[in-house]
Model the fold of this input.
Amino acid sequence: MLRSILRSSTSNASRRGFASGASPERKVAILGAAGGIGQPLSLLMKLNPLVTRLALYDIAGTPGVAADVSHINTGSEVVGYMGDENLGKALEGSDVVIIPAGVPRKPGMTRDDLFNINAGIVKSLCTAIAKYCPNALVNMISNPVNSTVPIAAEVFKKAGTYDEKRLFGVTTLDVVRAKTFYAGKAKVNVAEVNVPVVGGHAGITILPLFSQATPKANLSDDEIVALTKRTQDGGTEVVEAKAGKGSATLSMAYAGAVFADACLKGLNGAPDVVECSFVQSTVTELPFFASKVRIGKNGVEEVLGLGALSNFEKEGLEKLKPELKASIEKGIKFAHQN
Ligand code: NAD
Ligand code: LMR
Done:
């Protein structure tokens, strides 16, 4: 067991020195840390100055990833944990748990095709979260997000630990893509672009609200339709380009790091931390829905409404509801039956 745990060489003194700054100590655990997303995400979280302890968990490969990442001269301590028997130690004391564990798509597959394998993985990891760090903010990356978030909620409810403020489906990659594609078409500085993306995280359930995009640009209806489709199909674009070698990993690691950073800032009391996320919601009649969310010391402080929608977006919203509803119900049913 000892061999499977690898501590970083960061000295206690340097860690204490770092932790004595303005930010409180924060532990982040990454479950699936040796994977395509997990590795670059581990790197990016090691670079985040708000992280003091980084726990890297996977069923295999974490000693190597932890040894590698731990040599980076930032203040956080890195510990790698491998195998089921070490999951509890990885989770204990975590403030934020990021879950990119599970299988990715291959060309021709939908995200829902991953359900049979990933639902069970998410269920067992969430069972452990309920036991070892029930107060952590959970950032769910594993697909299909439209079902894995409801599964997590049901697992936490069963364990008596569910707090809807602490469970987030990570849809940041949709926002990252919408910003990039919009900036390219509108010929504006991508660093200044904001685009809310609402709904869910699969195909037509991904609804970018380009009518609310800033800086404003005079795009034609056809251009908006094309941008919307490209955002909805962004994941598939990467899956096809990778031709059997998985789905988005690098852009997802970036997006996951942006979202985890927002959670840490919110926990630390930073004002006006707003990101889109798939959360428990009353914004529509569906029990979970992605929209802008204000994140604070307790997690979700406020789920923001959709704002004014164009007719095209209103149609998109109505079209996505049946599919999103079915995916949510599938997750809930799985959690009850297994
Ligand atoms: P990957 O196969 O490269 O890595 C997955 C990792 O999970 C592997 O290292 C594997 O060992 C690990 N794993 C499997 N079972 C585990 C368990 N029980 N506990 C801990 N770790 C476990 O896959 P990837 O490319 O990193 O993608 C991971 C998931 O993220 C997929 O489901 C993918 O569809 C999803 N994803 C989501 C988004 C999003 O926007 N939310 C974006 C990209 C990918
Ligand atoms: C993405 O949007 O890139 C992810 O959900 C992975 C996928 O399967 O498309």
Observations:
- Residues 311-337 form the longest helix (27 residues).
